What we know:
Layout (H helix, E strand, L loop, with lengths): L2 H7 L2 E4 L5 H14 L3 E5 L5 H12 L4 E5 L4 H9 L4 E3 L5 H9 L3 E3 L1 E2 L2 H9 L4 E4 L2 H4 L1 H8 L7 E5 L7 H7 L3 E4 L10 H16 L3
Parallel strand pairs: 1-2, 1-9, 2-3, 3-4, 4-5, 6-7, 7-8, 8-9
Helix pairs in contact: 2-3, 2-10, 4-5, 8-9
Amino acid sequence: MTLDEALQEAPVVAIVRGIRPREILDHAQALYDAGLRGVEVPLNSPEPIESIRRLAEAFGDRMATGGGTVLRASDVERVAAAGGRIIVAPNTAAEVIRRALALGLDPTPGFATASEAFAAMEAGAKHLKLFPAATYGPGHVKQLKAVLPAQVTLWAVGGVGAEDLAAWWAAGARAFGLGGELYRAGQSVAETAEKARRVMAAVRDLR
C-alpha cells in the first residue's frame, strides 16, 4: 500500500519507537484492527530492519510500512531491502529524499521553516512533516499553507495528541505521525489497541 492510499483511509501513521521484532506483528495487528493504515519503525529502535522486514511481509499489501529517523541514503537502501515503503525523517536531507524516490519509495522529510519546506520539495518530496509540531503550533501550518502548493501534504508530528487533531486539521495539516500517543516501548498489545481506538475516534470527528 502506498502512503497516499494509507492516508486516504486514515490520516495517521503510528511511530512505534523502541519496538522489538518479536512484538511488531501483534502491535501492528492491533493498529490495523482499529483502522490505522501506516506504521513507521524508527531506526533507533532495537533491530529496526528486522522489524520492518516482518512488518512489510505481513502487512505491506494493506498498510504503508517503513522506517523513521532515516538520516542517510544508505539507511534508505536498508529499509528498501527489507520491503519498507515509507521513509520518514526528522530533517530535510536532499540525498535521503532523492534516494527514496529513485527506489520508488515515499519520503516524508521533516521541516520547520519555509526554506526547508521548499528545499524538500525541490528534491522531490510531496509530503512534509512539521517537526516538532508542538514547538510551532497550528498557526505555523496555517501561514505556510498560503505559500505551499496545494498538492503538498503537510504533517504534524511531535507533541501531537488525539485532543489536538482538530486544531491541526483546521489549520491545514492532513496527516499526523503519533508516537507515545499510540505506542511506548514495553506496553501491552491491549494498551496499543485502546490507544489506537481513542485516536481513531478523534480522526472520525475530523471528517
